[in-house]
Amino acid sequence: MKRRILIIATGGTIASERTPYGLIPAMTPEQLLSYLPELGKEIEINTISLFSIDSTNMMPDNWVAISEAIRAAYDDYDGFVVCHGTDTMAYSAAAVSYLIQNSPKPIVFTGAQKPMGSEITDAKTNLRDSIIYASDEESYGVQIVFDGKAIAGTRAKKTRTMSFSAFSSINYPYLAGIYDGRIIRYADNGIKGARPLFSSNINQKVYLMKLVPGITPDLIPSIFASYDGIIIESFGAGGIPENIEGQLFDELAKYDPLKKVVVMATQVQYEGSNIDVYQVGKKLSSKFNILEARDMTLEAAYTKLMWVLAQDNRSWDELRSLYYSSIGCDTLF
After folding, report:
1. Nearest-10 Cα torsion for 192, 300, 111, 6
2. Residue 34 phi, psi (nearest 5)
3. How far apart are the C-alpha atoms of 17 and 279, rounded to whole Å?
4. 31 membership: H or E segment, kind and range
5. Spatial CA neighbour of 153 closest among 102, 91, 204
6. Are 275 and 294 in contact, with CB atoms under 8 Å apart?
7. 150 contact partners, CB below 8 Å, separation of at least 6
8. 177 CB neighbour count, 10 Å cutoff
9. For a surface tag, which of 14, 69, 110, 243 has the fewest beta carbons within 10 Å of its beta carbon?
10. Residue 153 and residue 328 in contact, taking contact as beta carbons nearer than 8 Å
11. How many Å apart are CA 87 and CA 106, to the nearest integer?
């Protein structure tokens, strides 16, 4: 019996056409598949188009729409391929990893650096590899398949703007390589449940505050007043510069930690944070209840906080435990 795969189109470069105004998503999923007619002989492929947007315009509501579309069709298919723009694909894959947990069926995100209709393109290879990966009985969970590699959805980051090897796996091995239609597996993708855990609740009131030398504290009060979660992307292992320390500590002292959740992250791509290494970080962690991104990608830390804040956390310990739980192999600490 043929494996059944659902292609979910959302736009992106893979479906774009050239216009006088630049690339614009315009191709339907049926048009994309017309470039790979051989796949229909071995795999039953159906398609839906959710939206046709540049991934720059992808929003949290779109993440929910993608997960809800998968949920509605889940029992009818063996795997899912989401065609998506590359610029925010890592955010979407991480978000869906939290909205659909422990999936025994594969949910694959893919896209391209060049449109499908271009003379030189990575679109055909990426879409073919993704369909092959999604139709394999050993695949499960959420991942990105790109440039012959499968990456856990919570570990992917776009690290190149133009090269075909656009995505890297951060602080975790590649799940697999796809070579001439053959899958060579290297690592697993976390917990594979008998049934997936679906959620459609996220709290979008999360702010990313990137520290730079000479940053001023002026905006800190308004950030705390407007957002429920604040991720501070600090330097190195993590710490707070003295010139904003007073204002930040004053704001933290005003609020219940359940109401204003602060996560310390690092701007360094590999190896993660540890704010207790230096005095500039330890002063913060010793005075207040805060969280750390540790070895998570920024995309995972950001979308996970949105998901955690939408849960019924009755105590700080419950919230902390949920944020530090490993979901889709998003953290090893």
Report:
1. 30
2. -65, -20
3. 53
4. helix 29-33
5. 91
6. no
7. 108, 133, 139, 143, 144, 174, 175, 176, 177, 178, 183
8. 15
9. 243
10. yes
11. 22
Q: Which of 39-43, 62-66, 115-119, 238-242 has the lowest mean pLDDT?
A: 39-43
* Location of structure tokens 């995100």: 109
CA distance 137 to 3: 9
Separation CA 150–CA 106 (nearest Å): 11
Name the residue with tokens 């190195």. 236
Q: Say how far apart CA 117 and CA 40 lie, in whole Å.
A: 19
Annotated catalytic residues are 13
Please write the tens of the pLDDT for every residue from 244-274. Answer: 999 999 999 999 999 999 999 999 999 999 8
Q: Three-state SS string across 240-265, please?
A: CCHHHHHHHHHHHHHCCCCCCEEEEE
Q: How many helices (H) and strands (E) does the chain have?
A: 9, 18
Pairing of the two strands 176-179 and 182-185:
antiparallel
As a whole number of angstroms, the distance between CA 35 and CA 68 comes to: 28
* 71-103 tens-digit pLDDT: 999 999 999 999 999 999 999 999 999 999 999
Band (pLDDT 50/70/90 cuts) for residue 105 is: very high
Amino acid identity, residue 7? I
